[in-house]
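Dear colleagues,

As part of the handover before I leave the project, I'm documenting each prediction I ran so the next person doesn't have to rerun anything. This entry is a single chain, and its sequence is reproduced below.
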Amino acid sequence: MSIVERFTRWRDWFPIPTRGTGVGIVRWVLLEAERLAVTGALLTVVFATFMGIATFWTIEMQTLLTDTSTVQTILNTFLSGMILLVSIVVSINSIVLSHDITSVETQEERIRGAIDFRHDLGQLTDGDESPSDPASFLKVMSHIISTRAEALTDELGDAEQEFVEEVDEYSSGVSNAAADLGAVGQTTGAEFAVLWKGIGFDYGTHIERSRAIASGRDRPSERFEDLVEAFELFAIGQEYFKTLYYTKEVSQLSRTLLVVTLPAILFNASTIIAINGEVLPDGLILGLPPLQTFVAVAFTVSLAPYLVLTAYMLRLSTVAHLTASGGIFSLQ
């Protein structure tokens, strides 16, 4: 394993550039990065901003913090907000759990649907492979789609040259897209990167193009119908990927918020007591009066639950926006 490959394994924690795509800070923050890494970056920005302001306007900040009750008011507001955030977390968990806590009939319908889907997938692979995880499913579907796309050129016969060129171009495009879809071994980043390969594959455009090309012949080839069947089966798996992603992401968000919020509440309350009791020592901390440094840390810790929520919602909303679709229709 090369040095570059070793470093790209940390792409979900640091925006390390990759061949061909560069760094892509915006994409890294919105999609590829580990959510805790994004939270840490946001916390660093908040703390650095407050310390920068305090460094340039030290006297003014000291006057503001000592002669007014602004700090106590803000910290009290943060404390109330964090307690409210806990109730929101409970509500989020209730929504996630409500999907699984259903009647026996609903559970039976889900299981039968999963069995039927695996049966249909087994027919496409002639029973040779039965993938049980997203990565293996992508590899199998990549092979099936690529094989059926390449088979489009087998029955062209004495078709017009323009039609042959159109099919060749389409077949090559689908084969290349399928190859990229199945290259999960080259995927860098968090586990989300594998899910994103399945979520981001635009099957609707390929289905529409397949049917448009097939309609140009007097007698449509079954090869096109076979390819469309593969795309439709993949579409079912893609929608399941989205459900799997949302469930996993919301569960992680809830757990992380619960872990972060309690220490933040305790630190926030301790800060309010310490400021009111004027128990901070004299001297300098990080080159600033202790009150300013202490308040900077307190503000950063108090904002931690909100920044965790921000980090997760950035990716949730981005995925929802980029995959907003209904079947073969999509909102651009």
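The chain has twelve helices and two strands. Residues 31 and 319 are 8 Å apart (CA to CA).

All the best with the project,
I.
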